[in-house]
Amino acid sequence: QFDLKDGMAFQLWLNIGILLAGISTLFAAESCGPGELQPVFSFFGLAGGAMWATGNLLTVPIIQKVGLGVGLPMWGGTSLVVSFVLGQIPCCLGGVCLQPEVLSLPWFAAGGLGLSVCALLLFSAVQPGAESSAVGEASRLLDKAEAGDAGASAGTWVFARVQQAPERVSGISLAVLAGVLYGFQFLPVAMYSELHPDRSGALGSVRFFFSQWCGSFLISILAYATYSLGASRRGNGPPVASSVPVEAMMPAICSGFIWAIAGAGAILATENLGMSIGYPLALNGSFLVNMCWALFYYKEVHGDRNWRIYGGAALCSTLGSVLLSLAR
């Protein structure tokens, strides 16, 4: 409905909503005196939020370079594998060490992880990708040359391949990096709980959220300030936010607030179920909800082939979630 340009203004407003959700959790802060609260502000939370915000910033160039169809399964699948591996190896940071998680049925966990990755790959076969102008032009040249067009020489074919390759390689590399960051994002909160066992549990986690969402906001505002400064020095006009409709601000902030609530649920799931089970289950749940929006509200799926692929993706995701749950 709104032209959000390259997404930089949207990510800023999104993180403002996330920060507002973090501020609201201050009401759960521990009392240190009459009318006084003692909020938790931890480096572990800042680190976790910064990891997510950096990965979120990378999604813009990823989609521009390789499209959502390739980028989503790459960063989603990578984050699933990274989170699972982190739960199965001893992780140490600053003298704090996490012991490997014990799974009663490890083969169920491995099977559930594999099915979850397959679901993302199937999803990518349907979801349309947004191509950058460079990749789009290269694809058009490539299609023209491979179709045997009289105006397309062998040189055109080679040029198209050369033009397309760097964009694709860099896009896939960024997607893998984003996936690694997403997979690591809940490791700091697990270490915080290990370091402060007296602050574990649901209430202790709620008090931790403020630090996590502050980390996201700080990276977001830093990235936007750097972006705006670079644009002004290049003479590219006013900051992006001034060219994006103000009407888009409230939906973006509300999206951030809702995302923060979902992120809080993912943190609680990871804390109680572990990195190997909690995060993959949370990601599978978000994937299934996303599919329902695409199918029943936006009606993006048409044709028997696409319906079969979506059905297969939903089945893989559901079975993967069942196996992961049983593995615990």
Account of the protein in words:
Mean pLDDT is about 80; it is low at about 125-145 and about 150-165. This protein is globular. With about 325 residues, it is mainly α. The chain has eleven helices and four strands; from the N terminus they run αββααββαααααααα.
Question: What's the gist of this structure?
Answer:
With 328 residues, this protein is mainly alpha-helical. The protein contains eleven helices and four strands.
Backbone structural class: mainly alpha
Global outline: globular
Largest sheet: 2 strands, antiparallel
Q: What amount of the residues lies in strands?
A: under 5%
SS element count, helices: 11
- By DSSP, the count of extended strands is 4
Quote the distance from N terminus to C terminus: 43 Å
Secondary-structure element order, N to C: HEEHHEEHHHHHHHH
User: What is the gyration radius calculated from CA atoms?
Assistant: 22 Å
What level of helicity do the residues show? over 70%
Strand order, biggest sheet? 1-2
Mean pLDDT: 79
Low-confidence stretches: 127-146, 148-163
